[in-house]
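quick one, 291 residues, struct below
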Amino acid sequence: MDRKIKIGIIGAGKVGVSLSFVMLKKGFNVVAISDNEQDALNNAHRYLGSKGNIIFTKDNFYVLKLSDVIILAIQDRLIKDVAGELYSKAEKLIDKVIVHTCGSLASDVLKPLDEKGAMLGVIHPLQTFPDIESAIKVIPETYFFIEASGKAKDILGFIGKKIGKETVFIKGQHMVLYHLSAVFVCNLLCALLYLGESIMKNIDIELAPFFPIIKATLNNIEKKGPLYSLTGPIVRGDVETVLSHLKAIEDEKLIKLVYKDLSMIAARMAKERKAIDEKTYKKIEEILRKD
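---
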């Protein structure tokens, strides 16, 4: 596979710029990047301007004309519109590989570009990108999930393997479940830690002292999986501690709801591990289901 294949990026946001930066660093030929916003293009130029002879433009179709592989690194809600724009302007797209970076949508969102000969696909970095700098640092350790077939699959697999840690191929109909899992382990994890932090603010303690236990838990999960990393009162069958927790948050409806639901899952995990017997499980269930 040739790294000199011409790659164009539509979207000069965090994903587009960071992917371009790493691809250039790994020897890929990124030839153009487009965005509707001049500020975004200016920012992209700050990161990429010295890395090669890249064209910065507001014209998405110009990127299409210059490139063999076109990556739509744009917001999910814009993908159909941009695909429609490219379709309306292009007479033929034979040998063009056009893909997006959305984790919840399959490649068929890019139809009808294939009617004009384009090969469609998805290349999604399973990673959180709060800013461009952090994204550039973590991409080499990131798994890339790819949905494509034929030549597009080969090209995306090659790119993903060279710039990331590993590639995983996934079916289009499984994309939404894959993305849902990512939301649970990343976005909703942040929400969970936010709740923990809000509880501690009631007694004027910050979240920082909890970082070591958070890191240790994630390290255990990486080694043993979530089921066998579970610790705490429920896996010990400590009903009294669960009752004391519920009493402490009896006036906090949202926190209480989250605590009960997650504790119910923990109880099922403990039961699956045979850490608690059926009698203890039923007792915990009764407590957690009580209004």
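Strands lie at 6-10, 29-34, 55-57, 69-72, 97-100, 119-125, 143-148, 166-169.
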